[in-house]
Amino acid sequence: MTLQGKVALVTGGSRGAGRGIAIELARAGAFVYITGRSTGLQQAGQVRGTLDTVCQEILELGGEAAAIRCDHTNDRETEKAIRQIAEEKGRLDILVNNVWGGNALPIGLEPFWEQPPAHWDNMFEAGVRAQLMTNYYAVPLMRKTKDNGGLIIHTTFWDRDKYTGNFYYDLAKNALNRMAYGLSVELAADGIAVIPLSPGWMRTELVLAEFGTDEEHWQEVEALKNTESTAYIGRAAAALAQDGGKLALSGIPQQVGALAEKYGFTDADGRKVPVFRMV
């Protein structure tokens, strides 16, 4: 429980990477706020989780969490969420910028001129800008906590600067990486590390549903043999938050598989899933 007394915010925390990160930060002792638009308890047969179901999971594990319904494309709602954290806790030590609206359309590999321009709104308004504005409101609160060795994580994609194959996706993810770099320079004097964190192929709820399986039976699907659970990126985030030397990594994209080797954690099934590499 080395994060005891720390306060974390995970945006887009109702499912996928956000859920995995929220749970693992709570396991390590942090009080975790999760934001998103999905509320209420999950119904039978429902693929997507909600903020309330994740909070329930955390509480059942003995952790502490609170849900704040927030549409991060609405600046007023984002500001209100940060203000609530300031009023209730008076500090923010860990910010995980995970909110992302870029999967509203299929992310294909067609050339740019054949891609729908609506990708821009989905990836930049509901992704890049949403994360930027969360930083805008959260950073002043984080800077007030001088003793925290703070951490901002941007969940992203990075593989040695290789082109991802989708023009808009590549542009958006590199924008997040560059945002983290710029913030790392501006926040270095405050001792706040800003790290882009790149997972491999995660078994999110939607990926499992696409292959007609679940977290208990995914090993029966050959195509999923090299995937990783969302706990893997969660454990990477928790390890970074606990690292007293994390400022040396600030601004530098980190891959979850490499951090597993560095810090010695494993995925939920005990494996160390190798670094994801693009073909």
Automatic annotation (TrEMBL):
Organism domain of life: Bacteria
A Pfam family recorded for this sequence: adh_short
Segments traversing the membrane: none
InterPro entries (alphabetical): NAD(P)-bd_dom_sf (IPR036291), SDR_fam (IPR002347)
Protein name: NAD(P)-dependent dehydrogenase, short-chain alcohol dehydrogenase family
Species per Swiss-Prot/TrEMBL record: Paenibacillus typhae
Taxonomy of the source species: Bacteria, Bacillati, Bacillota, Bacilli, Bacillales
